Amino acid sequence: MILKPALAFTISFAAASLFAASDAPPATQGSADAHAAVAAGAHDCCAGKKGTAANHECPMKAKASASAQSESKGHEHGAMNQSVNHDCPMMGHDESAGVKDSGHMSHDMGHMDHAAGVDTRGDQAMGFSHATTTHHFRLLATGGAIEVTANDAADHESRDMIRAHLRHVSQAFAAGDFDLPMFIHDRVPPGVEVMKGQKDAIRYQYEELPAGGRVVIATTTPAAVEAIHDFLRFQIEDHRTGDATEVAK
């Protein structure tokens, strides 16, 4: 029997389809489950689920672990630095320097308080202001001199008070009375005790100056000269006049 061309083509196509279907592996539920398991494992790694090999290799967990280790080392390093700083001899030196600075500051403040006290008591005892007048203390070969003048030549009030004060000083010192400088300086000035004992060997001469006055102190006794110089040096320092502390040549 001879088949028609259309029918032969249909039979050949059907046979080819059946052959292809028989060669393909059948789809199973197991393969689908395996694919789902792989996807779930990848998710579980980043979620931190225990008991999987993927969890051990998870890059997110490894990063977190490295960060924690770095932070721990940072704390240890900080603690070590604190320990070193605590024991460091340089740190101790700085603290000692701070104590010394504090001591110098206290000394400076005490000196300033004393200077202010000298000025205040001096104004009260002498009857004129240290701000409008000028003191000078001169060391001479035979003794020395105390000079006070008004800063303003037209300040007759200060000039007259200076003259009255120095006249009183010359008389009091000649009598061995040094209560005035002891009050002003809040202590017994150097040389005073010898000057008291040598009062008969020391001459105190008041002299008038155009803007004030002075008291010339003279003696021929070496011990008295030395005491006068000690007394005047102390006055220079405590009144902060800046005068020479050695005998003028």
SSE inventory with pairings:
Blueprint: H1 5-23, H2 29-47, H3 53-56, H4 59-87, H5 89-126, E1 133-140, E2 143-150, H6 156-174, H7 179-185, H8 192-197, E3 202-209, E4 212-219, H9 222-239
Average residue-wise pLDDT: 74
Terminal CA distance: 164 Å
Shape: globular
**Strands in their spatial order, largest beta sheet:** 1-2-4-3
Notable traits:
249 residues, alpha+beta, 4-stranded antiparallel sheet, 4 strands, 64% helix, globular, disordered N terminus
Summarize the structure.
The chain has 249 residues and is an alpha+beta fold. The chain is 64% helix and 13% strand.
Verbal overview:
This protein has 249 residues and is α+β, with helices and mostly antiparallel strands. Helices cover 64% and strands 13% of the residues. The longest helix is centred in the middle third of the chain and has 38 residues, at 89-126. It is globular, with a radius of gyration of 54 Å. The N and C termini lie far apart (164 Å).
